[in-house]
Amino acid sequence: MGFSYGDAETQGGVSPCPHKLERKGIVSAIRFEHVTKQFPGASAPAVLDCTLTVEDGSFVVILGPSGCGKTTLLKMVNRLYEPTAGAIYIDDSEIRQLSATTLRRQIGYVIQQVGLFPHMTVAQNIAVVPRLLGWPRERIERRVDELLELVELPPAEYRSRYPSQLSGGQQQRVGLARALAGDPKVLLMDEPFGAIDAITRASLQDELLRLQRRLKKTILFVTHDVDEALRLADRIVVMREGRIVQYDRPIAVLTQPADAFVHELVGADDMVRQLSLVRVETAMAPLPAGFRRNGEPSIAPDADLRHALSLLLRTGAPALAVVDSQQPIGVLTLDHIRATAKNEIEG
Amino acid sequence: MGETLLRAYEYATDHQEEFLRALGEHLLLVGLALGIATLICVPLGIVTSRSRAVAATVINIFNSLRVVPSLAILFLAIPYFGLSLTSAWIALTILALPPILINTDTAFRTINPAIKEVAYGMGMTGQQRLWRVEAPLALPVIIAGIRTATVEVIASATLAAFIGSGGLGIYVTRGFALYDNAILLVGAVPVALLALLAEMVMSRLQRAVQPPA
Amino acid sequence: MSYIIQNPGIVWGLLLEHIIITGSSLLIAIAIAFPFGVLVADKPRLATPVLGFLGILYTIPSIALMILLLPIVGLGRQAIIVTLVVYAQVILVRNIIAGLRAVDPVILEAAHGMGMNSWQRLWQIQLPQALPVILAGVRIAAIVDIAIATIGAKFGAGGLGELLFQGIAQAGRYDKIWAGALSVAALALIVNWSLLALERAFDTTRRIRRSERRQLAIKKG
Fold first, then answer.
1. Cα separation of B105 and B110, whole Å?
2. B199 vs C59: CB contact, 8 Å cut-off?
3. pTM reported for the whole predicted model
């Protein structure tokens, strides 16, 4: 869930300083330098003087209310819009050095309406970019099957279906597979789950996180849904009226909002929301000596504290047993949770 | 009615060579008019579907053209090209233009803009997008337009006999001249059958290129 | 052009004939199509074969149908009116059915719930909503009939087609051809535009937009 405090230091209920998690030896995958976009006839620029560095392999969510310029910013990366000022670099080369079509074939693009080509089968849809890149037929076929497996749509069943025969969630999975087909380093996603029902959306978000753990793409994801942003992002870019207001990890955006606007947007006062970003294993205490299970409900170490709180309140139990592979490895009480929350506010 | 039909059949078999030639001429007229109209209107329709200003005027002109009775257009060719085959197929081509143009324009205009955006976003060039995405999606509506035009032209080609072209209409003119119902039928029945056949074939074609819904 | 100026009486007479033929056929066709369409609209099992049969009739070129009807109706004005009614039927029935069907079933259900019987639902909800589509059908039928009536001159019905046929029969009377073609084209275009205006006047979505624009103009003005 969210991002992990996965180091060994995190046990014992103390949350580490976020800065310790900076990656070393960064190749900046995407870099915006003073990017501005003014549409002709518009009273104000859609994007104003945005400077941003997106690290290789990170999942960055661009969050903001409608009209804040987040989609415009995204679309400048694959040059669907051209900046009025400033420059954008991918892996340190300016994107205008390549032709737009060559650039786009190296970037995966997923949109809200999915946009699957209705006259092509699922397999043909996925094969579009590989065909544009001139891959040999066999390689394309293998890739299609591979990707369908990846998005959990069995190839034998789904290859020859048409988009109209798929549900909204299935269509977006195919959309995702299609975007990944050319094995791009960068993935651009414009509110991809916006048109999907809440239940399917949650499973698609899980899916995306699972894929990202495996594939480590650099993802730029636009949304106006704060919960979605908090759940998926390694880092969040908060935008307002064309400007970047904050660029930080989710927990930092929640606990240290840059201004009143961000505070309001993410509901920084909502402690319970903040708990959803912290894992149980961060807050739990080690097993007391001679511990014996006494009917405490169990919870996984990678579940979030919000879940844990809910469980404690629902069952009325004094503590939860943190269980990993059938072995209890720690305990969690309301006090532990309270202590962690206090640390977050002060930290 | 029955015996007139029989007489008509006999007449046709008696003049088999002439009949087949007339049929051939008719088909040639229709094919030529449709072919030229398609060649003009499909590219034109693509162009108008992408603009707004030009499109409005062009579409209006063609809409008005559609309203004018086909006989009027057919006969208007006479002062310019006389009573000839040329008059006939120029007029027929003009008659075939509106449905094909309007349908092509609509077909390209109503393609889901999200699909067009994604096609660009994935790295297709304009040409690739046109051929791989837009054209297949526009095809059913374009064929519907050609279908309308076909039936229209088959009918008008019959009338074209009045202005001196060949085709199955010669039996209509002859039937009138000789006050003979049977001869009229030799013109009418094949034309009716031809129209129905064309409609069936083109409907099937249209359905075949329609992506499953 | 010159012919019209020199012989206004003749042209006017033919024009009137043309209008009478087309007009009366349309009225008859509407009188038949209307109850028929309303009846068939909500019975899909009837509607499909009916529309199918009418579709076949429509595909047959008008001149072929006129010839096929000759043994039954003979020559002259009556014969043409029959053909005109048949072709108008196809279009009218098709549009009436389509128009009635296009009314949102949710609205009809609400009306049903409020206590309207099917007669009231028809008159107060379905027909007003279907009106633009039905009027479109009337317009198209009128245009088609004007065209067929032109051909009908050959079958002895009179009308502006006479000028066209005389123009070729009397060698080189191009002025007659022009007169005939222009007048029938003008008739068709005028009828089309007037009925189109009528159609738009009844289109509720346009009416709303128009009144919005007017209110905005009043506020600004």
1. 9
2. yes
3. 0.81
Identify which of A112, A119, A165 has the shortest CB distance to residue B136.
Answer: A119
Which residues on chain B are in Cβ contact (under 8 Å) with C180? 72, 75
pLDDT tens column, A265-322: 888 788 888 888 888 877 888 888 777 878 888 888 888 888 888 988 999 888 888 8
Lowest mean pLDDT among A28-42, B107-121, C113-127, C201-215: C201-215
Segments making up each domain of chain A, as ranges: 8-106+185-269, 275-346
Probe site for chain B from C3, C63, C177, C187 (most B CB atoms < 10 A): C63
In order, the DSSP letters of A178-202 are: HHHTT--SEEEEESTTTTS-HHHHH
Residue in B112, B122, B136 nearest the CB of A129:
B122
Give the residue carrying structure tokens 């069952």: A315
If you count them, how many residues does chain A have?
A: 347
Q: In what order do the strands lie in the sheet with A298-299?
A: A285-286, A327-332, A320-324, A298-299
Residue C75 forms contact with B (CB below 8 Å): no
Partner-chain contact B154 C61, CB within 8 Å: yes
| C63 vs B: CB within 8 A | yes
- Verify whether the Cβ–Cβ distance B151 to C184 is below 8 Å: no
The CATH code that applies to domain B2-208 is 1.10.3720.10
Q: Per CB distance under 8 Å, which residues of A are interface residues toward B?
A: 78, 80, 101-107, 109, 111-119, 128-129, 132, 162, 164-165, 178, 188
Q: List C-alpha distances in Å: A249 to A19, A122, A232.
A: 10, 36, 11
Q: Is A298 helix (H, G, I), strand (E, B) or coil?
A: strand
β-strands A59-63, A235-240 pairing:
parallel
Of B117, B125, B132, the CB nearest to A111: B117
* CATH (one of 3.40.50.2020, 3.40.50.300, 3.40.630.10, 2.60.40.10) for A8-106+185-269: 3.40.50.300
User: Could you tell me which residues of chain B have a Cβ less than 8 Å from any Cβ in chain A?
Assistant: 112, 114-115, 117-125, 128, 132-133, 136-137, 211-213
Q: Mean pLDDT throughout A151-160?
A: 93
Helices (H) and strands (E) in chain C, counts: 11, 0
pLDDT tens column, C64-122? 988 888 888 777 788 889 889 999 988 999 899 888 888 888 888 888 888 888 788 78
The answer to whether A115 contacts B136, with C-beta atoms less than 8 Å apart, is no
Contact C151/C63 with Cβ under 8 angstroms?
yes
- Asked if the Cβ–Cβ distance from C188 to B154 is below 8 Å, we say no
Phi, psi (degrees; rounded to nearest 5) at A320: -110, 150
ipTM of predicted complex: 0.84
- Which residues in B lie closer than 8 A to residue A119 (C-beta atoms)? 136-137, 211
Q: How far apart are CA C48 and CA C98, in angstroms?
A: 12
What's the CATH number of domain A275-346, 3.40.50.450, 2.30.110.70, 3.20.20.140, 3.10.580.10? Answer: 3.10.580.10
Instruction: For residue A63, give how far its alpha carbon lies from the nearest alpha carbon of chain B (Å).
Output: 21
Contact A/B (≥3 CB pairs under 8 Å)? yes
With residue A219 as reference, give the H or E element that holds it. Answer: strand A218-223
Tell me which residue of A201, A233, A231, A228 sits closest to A304, measured CA to CA: A231
Residues 6+ apart with CB under 8 A from A25: none
Closest CA to C86 of C106, C114, C56, C109: C56
Domains in chain C, please, with CATH?
A: 2-220 (1.10.3720.10)
Q: If pLDDT is split at 50, 70 and 90, which confidence band does B118 have?
A: very high
